[in-house]
TrEMBL record, chain A:
<dbReference type="Pfam" id="PF00732">
    <property type="entry name" value="GMC_oxred_N"/>
</dbReference>
<dbReference type="InterPro" id="IPR036188">
    <property type="entry name" value="FAD/NAD-bd_sf"/>
</dbReference>
<dbReference type="InterPro" id="IPR003953">
    <property type="entry name" value="FAD-dep_OxRdtase_2_FAD-bd"/>
</dbReference>
<dbReference type="Pfam" id="PF00890">
    <property type="entry name" value="FAD_binding_2"/>
</dbReference>
<feature type="domain" description="Glucose-methanol-choline oxidoreductase C-terminal">
    <location>
        <begin position="452"/>
        <end position="571"/>
    </location>
</feature>
<keyword id="KW-0560">Oxidoreductase</keyword>
<dbReference type="InterPro" id="IPR000172">
    <property type="entry name" value="GMC_OxRdtase_N"/>
</dbReference>
<dbReference type="Pfam" id="PF05199">
    <property type="entry name" value="GMC_oxred_C"/>
</dbReference>
<keyword id="KW-0285">Flavoprotein</keyword>
From TrEMBL, chain B:
<keyword id="KW-0249">Electron transport</keyword>
<dbReference type="InterPro" id="IPR051459">
    <property type="entry name" value="Cytochrome_c-type_DH"/>
</dbReference>
<keyword id="KW-0472">Membrane</keyword>
<feature type="signal peptide">
    <location>
        <begin position="1"/>
        <end position="35"/>
    </location>
</feature>
<keyword id="KW-0813">Transport</keyword>
<keyword id="KW-0479">Metal-binding</keyword>
<dbReference type="Pfam" id="PF00034">
    <property type="entry name" value="Cytochrom_C"/>
</dbReference>
<keyword id="KW-0679">Respiratory chain</keyword>
<keyword id="KW-1003">Cell membrane</keyword>
Length: 592, 453
């Protein structure tokens, strides 16, 4: 007797979940998407001019996770006791339909080919001994060449603006000379440079580097994607990160995929549905469905399906796997188990450059994905041999629009007064004449940096919270310091009157009180070896073959680039193989 | 309920029988199409469904929140309110008891089963020209392809003696053509097959003139077909607070600068490079034209495109960059300019060009330049939603500015829009805006589904 509620159940209505839902409904499957948060409607919440209310938006965190219901606990090292993360600060997971894909900025990269096989590439170039013993450096198990069609597809769905360097081996534009080859150009031309980005472009060029336009899922022109969904062009209002775009210019699941999905009768979306666990059969090798709590009625419901896709935010996916008993939890002492292993972040610091007073940087102008970057110190684009670290950072000016409260809270830089006339003068000077330069770096995986279930703290539903054990390691601090120092000549070439170079210090612990990035990764990584990865190269659980786990949780290490483009490509890659292989013969797609 | 259940069961077993025989037939010729052959009935029902869409029956007979085709749409007249009726095949409350002849007589001649005359809110003067073949398909569809319902629309509230229907016989006699005559005028005029098809769809089932043609003292359409003069489709009186524009080649206030493709795209998706649907045109596209074939939409476009202008003195619109240049230089001294920059330009841009297909242009837009500013003022007051269509799944919204802008500010900003970039419509006063507030349509999204993108 077949009593299933749908062919597939998808947990989370962000980018990964909606891509999977679109692909699976196209394959003829009935799909239920469960989203823990509420519906988000740009037509109402994002209606101009209320949408661009900074207090309601970025300050009071309108689109972000409600930590009063569930959160994580955090500690730096294994000998500490973790405490709950009660106020959104260091990282900002989204909540509600669209997920983090609704509040993101829009920087839309393809992964660097070397980053996808970083262990192999580093060993080939520098030898096995170059890699520190406690570093869990691993390959993804999938190559750029394999992912290329799916990067391409994602860009066309997102309406990504950019300038290519090569298409099919031929140089066609002044894009990133370090970028891998493409099968087709960006669907839209690059966004225009802000003044600060143009200044950086020229200075970086003069300093001998190779500037390029950031690929942005902010539409530079009106755009209709392959699903028929429409985007309006960006007007640089600056309300991207933390906001729903009232111009429909920033790609989001809500704008770029859901309008088409909602017309499909095979698609059902249930919001306010907090998934408590994936239900497994007695053998623990097959999922039968999921159980969720309707947060409006407090009623628990179990749904049955042949296929379960976890596509919640990175650490929620790991949390659900641990709560459900999918796979073996990671043990850092014995160095066994895979769920929670290779928890990674990014190493990001922001430096500031002040220009002469006749230069107005107009920081209220901007867009989340717009800017100019150099990749000269990213990935393996430079010689690590004498440097003694693994990883790198793109460096960029990404003027995303500085809003009034953020500008006022920010100070005039190191050494300026925190109150009075001196503070005000510095604030005005900083707002009018300065620009920010980010070193947006990678973060490697280590044996004692991981995720597990907290032994003490529980969430509002009585389930143990996820525990993060994370701090900065010397390898990544060395990398950050090296790259930040490379900003100095660029600042000089800009004619800077003052420069504040910010980098991590050795021994500095991870501090959760200040925003760093929401680009968390790993914890349920993909790979070729079931002993060291939770998922195979198709993002299928090694242990429960009808569960696929899509998201940045699959990244073995944190790359310098923003993760969304790679998450989207991995989702399309996984969906492609589910459609062409798995559905014909369900079961493990790679033999362990 | 149980009746319906057993009848659908009956249909099922019949279908099963048919497919068994179909398989038997197919077995001898492997490689032949395995699709079960559709019965004439099913094909006829589909054809009827298509004609119902072309005739936009839903526009008046399906109301949100009620079962399909159970009527209930209110038509507020100066002397009372009438409601559209239940046209489901329910024997008692719908049209289940109508014979095909009675059905055709009601649609084409406006005569009910009981012999009384229908209010001309039912566009039978246009439907008069529908062919017997289409009538037959429509009859089969409404009797076999829709769900019977006993839902009753609210009672009409026309006081006696106006509630007597017999005087309408005279109205009908004078203003509604006989089917034979109507069909002849519509068919006779064209050698071009596409033009003839377009004329049939527009003048007949599409009943575009019901809104887009001016009406006379007796509320009759001044022309029911292109043969009857240039008044046909030259723009009508306000419907729900919006002015149906001229569909003729009027350069500033009609479709003079729309190509055939523009028209066809608009009817398929509610949007094109030149503008977006609003008001009652939105449901007309949603329930009606988006369901038509590309060939039929092209025929409609071809026909509309061949109509000449009705306002011969209209000077062709030419883009004037003066205001754009001033705004680009930060000069916002003109009446309404600063309001425009702060409230409108994000989407419609300082050059008035909008973002074609997404946010409509205001420069050269006929809606903006119509003599009566009601549409423009009402869109600013109420906002607007362009819902998802099959071929354009993105819903696009404009927020309501009522309450956010004062009457004076709305007057100023719409005047700015009406007189910039080569637009040359008369200014709008605070008094005009106050007056139009009384007929303001419901605020955007206060009724109807909320777009979820």
């Amino acid at each position: 007797m077949n009593t299933k509620n749908a062919d597939a159940i998808i947990v989370g209505a962000g980018w990964a979940g909606t891509i999977m839902a679109k692909e699976l409904t196209e394959a003829g499957l009935s799909v239920i998407v469960l989203e823990r948060g509420k519906e988000h409607t740009t037509a109402i919440e994002g209606a101009y001019p209320d949408s661009i209310d900074e207090l309601r938006g970025a300050i009071r965190k309108r689109l972000f996770q409600n930590l009063a219901k569930t959160t994580v606990t955090i500690r730096n090292t294994v000998d500490q006791t973790a405490l709950p993360y009660r106020q959104l600060a260091a990282f900002l997971p989204g909540e509600g339909v669209g997920g983090a894909g609704l509040h993101w900025s829009g920087v839309h990269f393809r992964a660097d080919p070397n980053d996808l096989r970083l262990r192999s590439a580093m060993e080939e170039r520098y030898g096995k001994n170059f890699i520190p013993k406690d570093m869990h450096l691993q390959d993804y198990g999938v190559t750029y060449e394999e992912l290329e069609p799916f990067f391409d597809k994602a860009e066309k769905v997102f309406g990504t603006s950019g300038t290519a360097y090569t298409v099919k081996g031929k140089v066609i534009g002044d894009g990133n000379v370090f970028a891998p080859d493409r099968s087709s150009d960006f669907p839209l031309p690059a966004m225009n440079d802000t003044f600060s980005a143009a200044t950086f472009r020229k200075a970086a060029h003069d300093a001998g580097y190779h500037p390029y336009s950031l690929p942005a899922a902010n539409a530079s022109q009106p755009y209709t994607n392959p699903y028929g969904c429409q985007m309006g062009p960006c007007n640089f209002c600056g309300y991207c990160s933390g906001y729903d775009c009232y111009l429909y210019s920033k790609a989001s699941p809500n704008v770029n995929i859901l309008p088409a999905l909602r017309q499909d009768k095979r698609f059902t979306l249930i919001s306010n549905a907090h998934v408590l666990r994936v239900d497994l059969d007695g053998s623990k090798t097959k999922a039968t469905g999921v159980t969720y709590l309707d947060t409006t009625t407090q009623r628990e419901t179990s749904l049955k399906a042949d296929l379960v896709i976890l596509s919640a935010f990175q650490f929620h996916n790991v949390h659900l796997m641990l709560l459900s008993g999918i796979g073996k939890p990671y043990d850092p002492v014995k160095n066994t188990g895979t769920i929670g292993r290779n928890f990674v972040y990014q190493t990001i610091t922001t430096s500031r450059v002040w220009l002469p007073e006749n230069n107005y940087t107009n920081q209220f102008i901007g867009a989340g994905g717009v800017g100019v970057a150099i990749d000269d110190f990213n990935s393996m684009n430079f010689d690590h041999g004498p440097l003694g670290f693994v990883g790198g950072s793109p460096v960029w000016v990404n003027q995303a629009g500085v809003k009034p409260i953020a500008a006022a809270v920010g100070t005039g830089g190191h050494g300026t007064p925190r109150w009075g006339k001196g503070y005000k003068d510095a604030l005005v000077d900083t707002y009018k004449h300065s620009l920010a330069i980010d070193a947006h770096g990678s973060n490697m995986a280590y044996r004692d940096v991981y995720l597990d279930l907290d032994p003490t703290w529980k969430d509002a539903y009585g389930l143990p919270l996820l525990r993060m054990t994370f701090t900065w390691k010397d390898n990544d601090i060395r990398m950050n310091q090296y790259v930040v120092n490379k900003i100095a000549p660029i600042a000089r070439a800009m004619g800077a009157t003052k420069v504040s170079l910010n980098h991590l210090e050795f021994g500095q612990p991870f501090d959760t009180r200040h925003y760093q990035t929401t680009h968390l990764g790993g914890g349920a990584i993909m790979g070729d070896n079931p002993q060291t990865s939770a998922l195979n190269r198709y993002l299928q659980s090694w242990d429960v073959s009808n569960v696929f786990v899509i998201g940045s949780n699959a990244f073995p290490q944190g790359m310098g680039y923003n993760p969304t483009g790679t998450v989207a490509a991995l989702a399309y890659w996984s969906a492609h193989h589910i459609r062409t292989t798995y559905l014909k013969s369900p079961g493990p797609m790679v033999q362990a | 309920m149980s009746k319906r259940h057993s009848s659908s069961k009956r249909k099922l077993s019949a279908a099963a029988l048919r497919s068994v025989s179909a398989i038997a037939v197919c077995l001898s010729s492997i490689g032949a199409s395995l699709a079960a052959p559709s019965t004439p009935d099913a094909a006829l029902i589909e054809k009827g469904r298509y004609i119902a869409a072309a005739s936009d029956c839903s526009a008046c007979h399906s109301v949100q929140g009620r079962e399909e085709y159970t009527g209930g749409m209110a038509f507020a007249l100066p002397f009372g309110t009438i409601h559209s009726t239940n046209i489901t095949p329910d024997q008692e409350h719908g049209i289940g008891a109508y014979t095909e002849e009675e059905f055709a007589r009601a649609i084409r001649r406006g005569i009910r089963k009981d012999g009384s005359t229908l209010y001309p809110a039912m566009p039978y003067p246009s439907y008069a020209r529908m062919t017997d073949e289409d009538m037959h398909a429509l009859y089969v569809y409404f009797h076999n392809g829709t769900t019977p319902s006993a839902a009753q629309p609210p009672k009409n509230t026309i006081p006696w003696p106006l509630s007597m229907r017999w005087p309408l016989i005279f109205w009908r006699g004078i203003f509604s053509p006989t089917p034979k005559k109507a069909l002849k005028t519509t068919q006779a005029a064209y050698d071009d097959m596409i033009l003839a098809r377009g004329a049939y769809l527009v003048e007949g089932p599409g009943h575009c003139g019901a809104c887009h043609s001016p009406r006379g003292l007796a509320m009759q359409e001044k022309a029911l077909s292109t043969q009857e003069g240039d008044a046909y489709l030259s723009g009508g009186a306000a419907v729900d607070g919006y002015i149906p524009p001229s569909l003729r080649a009027d350069d500033r206030t009609g479709l003079g600068r729309w190509s055939e493709d523009d028209i066809a795209t608009f009817l398929a998706t509610g949007r094109n490079q030149k503008g977006s649907a609003f008001g009652s045109m939105t449901p007309a596209i949603m329930h009606g034209t988006q369901n038509l074939s590309a060939a039929d939409l092209h025929a409609i476009a071809h026909y509309l495109h061949h109509l000449g202008p009705s306002r011969l003195k209209e000077k062709p619109w030419v883009y004037d960059p003066r205001v754009t240049n001033e705004l680009h230089q930060g000069r916002t001294t003109e009446r309404g300019a600063m309001l425009y920059v702060n409230n409108c330009a994000a989407c419609h841009r300082t050059d008035g060009a909008g973002y074609p297909d997404v946010f409509p242009p205001l420069a050269g837009n006929p809606v903006v330049m119509s003599a009566d500013p009601a549409s423009l003022v009402h869109i600013v007051q109420s906002g607007a939603t362009l819902p998802a269509m099959h071929k354009a799944p993105s819903a696009l919204t404009m927020p309501s500015f009522e309450g956010h802008l004062s009457d004076q500010e709305i007057a100023d900003v719409v005047t700015f829009i009406r007189q910039s970039w080569g637009n040359n419509a008369p200014p709008v006063s605070k008094r005009d805006v106050e007056k139009l507030k009384k007929t303001m349509p419901p605020r955007n999204m206060s009724e109807g589904p909320i777009p979820q993108n």
